[in-house]
Structure formats: C-alpha cells, structure tokens
Amino acid sequence: MKRLWRLQVVLSWVLAVVLGSVHGHVRRQWGEQVPRESRPHSVTITEFGAVGDGRTLNTLPFQNAVFYARSFADKGGAQLYVPKGRWLTGSFNLTSHLTLFLEKDAIIMGAEESSQWPIVEPLPSYGQGLDLPGPRHRSLINGYNLTDVVITGNNGLIDGQGSVWWNWLRSHELNHSRPHLVEFLYSEEIVISNLTFLNSPAWSIHPMYCSNVKVHNVTIKTLLDAPLTDGIVPDSCLNVCIEDSTISVSHEAISVKSGWDKYGISIGRPTSDIHISRVDLQASSGAALAFGSEMSGGISCIHVDHLRIHGSDKGFSFKTTPDRGGYIKEVVISDVEIDGIRVAIEFIGNLSSHPDDDFDPSELPVIDQITLKNMVGTNISVAGVLSGIDGDPFTAICLSNLSFSITDSAHSSPWSCSNVSGYSESVFPEPCSELYAPFSNSSICFSLPSYSALAVA
Ligand SMILES: *[C@@H]1O[C@H](CO)[C@@H](O)[C@H](O)[C@H]1NC(C)=O
Ligand SMILES: *[C@@H]1O[C@H](CO)[C@@H](O)[C@H](O)[C@H]1NC(C)=O
Ligand SMILES: *[C@@H]1O[C@H](CO)[C@@H](O)[C@H](O)[C@H]1NC(C)=O
Ligand SMILES: *[C@@H]1O[C@H](CO)[C@@H](O)[C@H](O)[C@H]1NC(C)=O
Ligand SMILES: *[C@@H]1O[C@H](CO)[C@@H](O)[C@H](O)[C@H]1NC(C)=O
Ligand SMILES: *[C@@H]1O[C@H](CO)[C@@H](O)[C@H](O)[C@H]1NC(C)=O
Ligand SMILES: *[C@@H]1O[C@H](CO)[C@@H](O)[C@H](O)[C@H]1NC(C)=O
Ligand SMILES: *[C@@H]1O[C@H](CO)[C@@H](O)[C@H](O)[C@H]1NC(C)=O
Ligand SMILES: *[C@@H]1O[C@H](CO)[C@@H](O)[C@H](O)[C@H]1NC(C)=O
Ligand SMILES: CC(=O)N[C@H]1CO[C@H](CO)[C@@H](O)[C@@H]1O
C-alpha cells in the first residue's frame, strides 16, 4: 500500500515536471490573458489532465497541480488557473504562496461520493466531530500550515453540492461529521475574495488557528432549509477581516468560535481582533452574527459595523453554558439595520451540548463588555432575550441608541432579562430594569481604539 502511494507521488512529480516544462513556454501568454495575476508563475488545471464537463472526477489533477505549484514556493509562488467549465473534484490541499484563480463561469464542484472526502481526526479544540462523535470528513479545499494563499477569481463559483450530505444527515446515513467547503488550519496571510460559495455540506469558510485572514467581496449561499449550514466561522484565529460580502445560509451567517469545553480550554487558543464591516446577512434558522456557543478558548476584541440583517431567526446571539470556561468580551457592534427577525438580540447561558459526558460545571464562562449601538430594526418580534447564568451573571452589557419596531403583539414584553447587568440609553422599546443598575453609567460601555487596516493585501 505504502509503496503504491510512493509510486503515485513519484509519477505525479514526473508528470508535473514534464508538464511544467511544457507550460514554461506558454506562461507569458497567460500572463497577458489573466489580468490581476500577481504571481510570477501560472499553471492551468487542464495541463494536469482535468476535464471540465461536470462528470469527470478531477481530484488527482487538482492534487497534482498543487504539488507542482509547490516547486515555485520559493520563487514568488504560482497561480493555479481554473478556466470556464464545471470541474468536479474530491478533497484537495493547497500549498503556500499559491493563488487559486477561478475564471468567470468556472465552477469547482464537490464530488457527491463521500469516499472523495477522506476521513480525518476531529479538530483538536473540539475533540469530536460536530454532527457525530469521532473523526470527520476532510473539507473540499484545505490549507494546513500554510502562508500567503489567495483564493480568488473573476466571480467563479465553488459549489459543495451539499444536498447529498444534508440528506445523509437527515436520514441518519452519515457515518462521520460533514465536511466544510474551505478550511485552513495553522495558516497565515490568507485572502479569499471575488468568488461565490454555494451549498457547502456544513460550513463554507472555516479558518482555524490562523492569523491575518481577509475575506472580501464574497457571496455565500446555501438552501435556507438545509440542516445547520454556517457561512464564515473564524475559530481560534487572530486578525480576521470580513468585508463587503453577502451571506445567506440556514444556520449562522458568521459564527465566531474558539473550541468546545475541556478540549478548547486545554488548547487555549483565543479568537481575537476580528473586524466585520459592510456585510449583508441572512440566517434563516440561526443568528446572523453568533458568538459561541463553542468559546472555551476565549473571544475578544471584536469590531463590527455597517451590517444589514434580514429574514433571520436572530440578529445577534451570544451563546455559552456553565461548563464551557473561556470568555466573550470587548465586543462593539454598531450601525446596523435589521428587518424581519424573530429575536433581535439574544444572550443565552444554558446552551448545554457537550463533546462527551466528562464536563466540569465549575468552569464558568465570562461574558463582559459587550456594546451594541446605533441600530434600527423593523418587523421584529422580540427585541431581546438576555439570560445569563445563575451565580455567574453576564456583565457590562451596554445598549445605546437602538430603535426596534415590534410587530408581534402576541409577546407581552419586548425584552426579558435575567442574571445580566449593564447600561442602556436611548433604547426603544424601553429595555428591562437589569440594564439600569443604580450606579452604572455610560463609562461601562466598551469602545475599541479606531481600527487600522490589516497588513494583508
Ligand atoms: C493533505 O494534507 C493533509 C494534512 O497535512 C495530509 O494528511 C494529506 O496527506 C494531504 N493530502 C494530499 C493528497 O496531499
Ligand atoms: C509547518 O511549516 C514550516 C515551514 O514551512 C515547517 O518548518 C514545519 O515543519 C511545518 N509544520 C508541520 C506540523 O507541518
Ligand atoms: C467583486 O468581485 C467581482 C467578481 O467576482 C468583481 O467583478 C467586482 O469588481 C468585485 N468588487 C470589488 C469591490 O472588489
Ligand atoms: C456509511 O457506511 C455504510 C456501511 O459501510 C455505507 O454503506 C454507507 O454508504 C456510508 N454512508 C456514507 C454517507 O458514506
Ligand atoms: C477583486 O476584484 C477587484 C475588482 O476587480 C480587484 O481590485 C481585486 O484586486 C480583486 N482581488 C483579488 C484578490 O484579486
Ligand atoms: C416580517 O418578517 C417575517 C419574518 O421574516 C416575514 O415573514 C414577514 O413577511 C415580514 N412582514 C413584513 C410586513 O415585512
Ligand atoms: C434554557 O433556558 C430557557 C429559558 O430560561 C429555557 O426555556 C430552556 O429550556 C433552557 N434550556 C436548557 C437546555 O436548559
Ligand atoms: C443612532 O443610530 C442611528 C442609526 O444607526 C444613526 O443614524 C444616528 O446617527 C445615531 N445617533 C447617534 C446620536 O449616534
Ligand atoms: C460612572 O461610574 C464610574 C464607576 O462605575 C464612576 O467612577 C464614575 O464617577 C461615574 N460617573 C458618573 C458621571 O456618574
Ligand atoms: C444570582 C441571581 O440573581 N440569580 C437569578 C438568575 O435568574 C433566575 C431566573 O430569573 C433567578 O431566579 C435567579 O435568582
């Protein structure tokens, strides 16, 4: 088995070198044809035998092309060009100093056989798969321990063809947790832009243990009745910037996480310095912007502005549970338009779901210094449900300049609060008394120093 695998690697290397020398002749012409190409070398997926007919499986061509592109890593890197066509593939890895460029009408399509998505260990800070205990399927496009990777295009499309996975999940035929569409682990200097991501089996873009990640000008969609599909999930990452994008999924549109119970506590990698700006979010059965519930490594310094949220179950959700440890703190969300939402703001302290039975209820999470300001909401059923943990209240929750028009008169009170404290000013409808603590004043409202652009291109 091992020998066969080696033979395959040697063969693909020989193939790659032969093709590469052929391609060396024509590279300059592509440079002319593909504007915005910033790598000194370029290869096209068809050079590696790929067929873009929507039926031929191109897993090996993608793997070989990346393997070949690796030889340019110390020469400024390479672009892997995907022309117009329907490129069916199983899971493949990226490499450092690579640009994956999808031309207009280029579609990378996830194979519909689960065997094309190999089984890998669960994520260290989760300890288990999220759908099922044990290992999980590898994502479609993967980066592991990389630096300087760009996934972009002239609005090409990456389609996970997730409905087969959703049906397996619903019919209990799934043997391992579902894969994501794009996942980076232990990587830095990542740019994802100018593309559409469609129907991921589970999450669409999942950077984990990464730093300096920029997601710009992307559209992410899944069917709104799919089971638990999330858009972008910054997870134990530092310095993530999400801008000018549109996300419409079934569960959470953007979900900020950092690990699950004892696994997340022991790995201890926080999510920090996240900037989200000018995005349009829809989360049919979840929250447009969620924090947790997996937050055991801690989440802090989150700056969010200029959101449009519509057609979602919840607007903002801060979720945790008593054994989870960690913290969510130093969050500022401002300049938001919300329309057609059941619950605009939710804090929930009892979201019990554990990787296994060995959890420690004395590991209490901290929720502190959360500011939500300058929001206008229309067609909202409930303004806010803020439930902290008995004996572990959520503190310094600051609501300022919020105006929600409540359409569902069936709910007697637009706000309900327990085990929370904080401050409010200029909030309509008037919030609960917990946010008028006698000695609190606007000095508890958290604000962040003004944001300076990330050093990623
Ligand atoms: C992809 O990367 C993973 C993790 O580094 C590795 O285990 C796997 O063998 C790689 N697959 C290929 C086809 O290179
Ligand atoms: C990660 O990449 C660096 C630099 O390329 C290398 O030195 C290191 O061995 C890699 N680590 C793993 C776990 O692959
Ligand atoms: C967004 O990406 C599309 C292609 O997908 C491109 O035509 C458009 O100019 C980009 N807009 C910005 C602001 O980058
Ligand atoms: C789960 O395992 C069974 C038995 O090996 C197999 O028949 C089935 O195709 C697998 N399901 C998926 C979705 O891979
Ligand atoms: C995305 O498209 C815009 C507008 O065409 C362009 O300026 C930008 O460089 C593109 N991004 C990447 C990473 O190619
Ligand atoms: C209010 O929002 C709900 C839920 O999104 C939607 O079904 C309904 O059509 C909206 N009503 C109006 C008047 O916009
Ligand atoms: C959490 O609390 C809410 C409201 O207090 C309650 O309706 C719900 O059943 C509780 N959930 C769990 C899992 O305890
Ligand atoms: C209150 O919020 C609205 C809507 O975001 C904004 O237009 C207005 O300038 C804010 N007022 C103050 C005093 O900040
Ligand atoms: C606001 O509260 C802080 C402590 O919470 C206190 O030091 C300060 O004097 C208060 N300011 C006003 C204007 O009441
Ligand atoms: C310490 C404390 O105030 N605990 C409260 C938490 O919320 C529940 C439900 O409202 C109250 O019953 C507890 O007294």
Automatic annotation (TrEMBL):
Family: Belongs to the glycosyl hydrolase 28 family.
GO biological process entries: carbohydrate metabolic process
Identification of the protein by name: Pectate lyase superfamily protein domain-containing protein
Native organism: Triticum aestivum
Keywords tagged on the record: Glycosidase, Hydrolase, Signal
Gene3D superfamilies listed in its UniProt record: Single-stranded right-handed beta-helix, Pectin lyase-like
Pfam family, any one: Glyco_hydro_28
Domain of life: Eukaryota
MF terms (GO), sorted A to Z: polygalacturonase activity
